[in-house]
Structure prediction request, 429 residues.
Amino acid sequence: MEYLIAFLVLIGVLIWFHELGHFLFAKLFGVKVEVFSIGFGPVLLKKRYGETEYRLSAIPLGGFVKLYGEEDNLADPKAFSSKPNWQKILIAFAGSFFNFILAVLVFWFLGLLGKEVPKYALEKPVVGYVQENSLAEKLGIREGDLVLSINGKEVKTWKELEERMLREIFARTITVEVLRDGKVVVLKGNLDVKNPRAFGAEPTIEPVIGGVLEGSPAHQVGIRKGDKILSINGVEVKTWQESVKLIRSSEKINLRIERDGLEKELTIIPMKDPKTNLSVIGVMPHIGTVKLKQGVYESLVASVEKIVLLSGLTLKAVWSMITGTLSPTNLGGPIAIAQLAGQSAQQGIIPYLNLLAFISVQLAIFNLLPLPMLDGGLIVLFFIEMLRRKPLSVKFKEAWQKTGLAIIIALSLFVIINDFIRLFSGKKF
Prediction:
């Protein structure tokens, strides 16, 4: 139920903002709005104010604004059909524009509020550990390397490194400069967008317990938050990653820890992770954090930059699916969104708002795709009519709409099937 409520609130806010854009721009240009509906299908609630009927409908996966004269060629100055094409284009674009505005406002607010980030995020990107089979390992990055640049762009902190990798996610090749033993070493490799992986180079994280899962093997033997792991099965460990590697490969664990300046030895029988069949004991690392706050102007600029970045990544992803370099199975539908909404709501209001802003950008981009039945498809028609200086034929418009309806239905079925396959296979979106 919590997942459903989180999903309905998220979708409701996104749709309301989107349709509000169409509504306000229609009013701005003097177009009569007959219906403003959140959802579609059977009407649950409705109320007329002035010339507009406001509705709440049963199926909350969409919404619409019905404009007077939208389907008929009327000479009435209040009719949509009587307006110049540039105004029609702006009315059609307004829905996505308001979704972009919503995302900017949310990211702006979150920037002003501040967020907790790991302390290491602001430190120099000195590699403390390299994951097996990761991109970093394939490039030849080693522990102790200081990452200087990625694809020619300088990085000074782990935060900048992560942001740069995000920007380069759809690049075909990657070039990383590192400082190793006082010398600059250039490492080159290929990126495989069909099998995306984390970079795989991590900072040094001390082997200190940050949390213990209640009822876990670690909890049962008395391990506490703040304990420092010294050795596992006689092997000395200096990083958290080394501890994880040794634990995962052990059937029985002799653990030596330090607590309040005293050493203590414990024996643990780990449990198996049902998904990976690897040994786990139910502990998490202690990672110090700092709170980053931004000023009003700084946060606004950062919000706009984030929207531009997300929009670019979304368009690159769409193009990669069209060209076949990225599998369309990466698309998510209502079930995937509901899962993400529920999970983020459980984590708190900040993750939930981040998801709201992220999906708002996705919704804006999707609606601007030049497909029939979408706002982008309408913009294409109005632009063609503006160039032709006369309306397109009714026959063409009908064929355009029918084609669009078929595409949208097929796409909807595809993403829903994707959702069910992920749901029953246990894969994460």
In short: The first strand starts at residue 33 and ends at 49. The chain is about 45% helix and 25% strand. The radius of gyration is 27 Å.
